[in-house]
Design goal:
- The complex is a heterodimer of chains A (383) and B (262).
- Chain A has 383 residues and is α/β, with parallel strands linked by helices.
- Chain A contains 7 helices and 19 strands.
- In chain A, helix 1 packs antiparallel against helix 4.
- Chain A starts with 7 loop residues before the first helix and ends with a helix.
- Chain B is of the alpha/beta class and 262 residues long.
- Chain B starts with 6 loop residues before the first strand and ends in a 13-residue tail after the last helix.
- Classes of the chains: A alpha/beta (383), B alpha/beta (262).
Chain lengths: 383, 262
Amino acid sequence: MPAATEPAFLAQRRQKAAELVAVLPLPSRKEEDWRRTSLEGLEVEAYKPAPARITLQGNVPEGVIFTDILTAAAQYPDLVSKYLGSLYDMAQNKLSAAQAAYLTGGVFLYVPRNVSVAEPLQVRYEAAEGEAHYLHTLVVAEANASVTLLERFEGTGDYLHVGVVEVIPMDGAKVRYGYLQNQSQDAWTFTARRTRTARDATVEWVGGEFGGGLVRSELFGELVGEGSSSTIKVVYGATGSQHMNIVASEVHEGCNTASDILGRGVLSGRAHTVFWGNGQINHGARNGSTFQRQQALILSKQARADSIPALIINESDVQQAGHASTVGKLDEEQLFYLMSRGLTRQQAVRMLVMAFLSPVLDQIPVEELRNEMIRLMGEKVVN
Amino acid sequence: MTTGASLVIEDLRVSVDDKPILKGVSFQVNPGEIHAIMGPNGAGKTTLGFALMGHPRYEITGGSVKLGDKDLLAMDVTERAKEGLFLAFQYPFEVSGVTVANFLRQAVSAVRGEEISVWDFQEMLAEKMKQLEMDPSFASRYLNEGFSGGEKKRNEMLQMVLLRPRIAILDETDSGLDIDALKVVARAVNSLRGPDFSAVIITHYHRILNHIKPDVVHVMMNGRIVKTDGPELAEEIEKRGYDWIKAEVGITDETADLQGVN
């Protein structure tokens, strides 16, 4: 909650947002990408904003700022106010407004020009029953800087998580943002991630979605600078009665820009997932390339995976653009073959699931994150 | 598996999609014996292999099968493998994303009931691959993906020699192989030959039996074993075909209606 030393810009921002909370509705099913997601039963006011419990880990070179966002706002008000909310509009709905109004914590990471942070910086968040967490992660990488940030989200019980991640890379900067969403299966979790690339900048989103009762996860890239690129890799595992709504979108505005979306999910129980992919090349973004592949593997009769790719090309000079999408089941003949060599059905299923995920897992750039994804997939979905 | 076991099949009846394919098959394989099962297309030979291994599509409607003193038909597929039964598939399935080495290490660990270290396994694998004249790069390829017909059969034999089953069923492992590949298959089987190992070689042709000398040859037709004799029976079939046996046992109807389901 507002610290005693909260700077004026943040107090004003909260004030403005609070007015919006009062008038804006929750996201509506009339909006295309909310059409298959029900927010029935969500009462935002029933959850009490709680100070974020954050653990930061990692050594940073001189000049790099890596601290919680409320401290950063007080210590570096000019820097934080310049970028906070610059890519994400708080006035979209009640949740986006509440996130700005009640901001309970988060992380500010600032990397000066030409500085490379070798080791991944890590953040862990915890949440508990009845709490509301309104979190903001703000990453600013100046020209030719490079950094990897990994965030993990965990919790127990029924709570509300509303997070915003803004990644701002300047010319030639490289930012890799990885996350592991392992929230409580009873939690409402909403996370919006945004980036806008400058010239020759590179942003990699690498995510694992495993927890949450209802999950809305947005990964958006806006490729503005010439020669910039953005990639999205998401692995998701849903079971029980989990609902996941994942939106991955790359919009090209600059020339010679490249994007790639790779999503693979495994479903069991009565889980329902919706994966929206969007590759968009706007008029004037010459020689762009955008590709998306989304695949889901269903292990139970009751689970359902919707895979919805979109490709919008408004420029005639395109290097490549395409999408591929499949939803499938395990092959019983393959299972029989593996079991005939002594593997149990569970071992065989696990082997086929990992084989299905390997094209994405092999590309997860941080080994620790990859191993945790494998572990969670084994524990939660294939058991 | 350190000790051999007999395989005793009595009056085995199997249906596929409610259609009877095996109509009472009986024979016994003693420890150390190699049996050949020959017969025309549609006789039910492949059905026998799948039914013994426990494929869910092959419904047992009668009879019994004992492996040693255990009831094979009461076991699930995994248990059958752990008890030492092995089926070399005629058309092995492709599994993208799983390397040959990773799969085989897990399979060997599963059958032995103990985890084998990556190091020990690499050594074992390298030795067996050399024996089967397989390129070392084979181990890191995805299981059967993009393999030629011959490579798939070699891979089946690699699995067999690593798993060291008590009873191996080779379902037309010889078909489509050139002479060099055929010799490799024969070498694999002969390397296991001994009192602890028995094999049932299902084949159309006499050719493989020149390299793996069977103790007993059965002829299967129309879902039954119609004739059983020594290795000379295979040679006779090579020379005279099957018509004389059909005449002898009074089969006039070709089993054409069974094509495609076995």
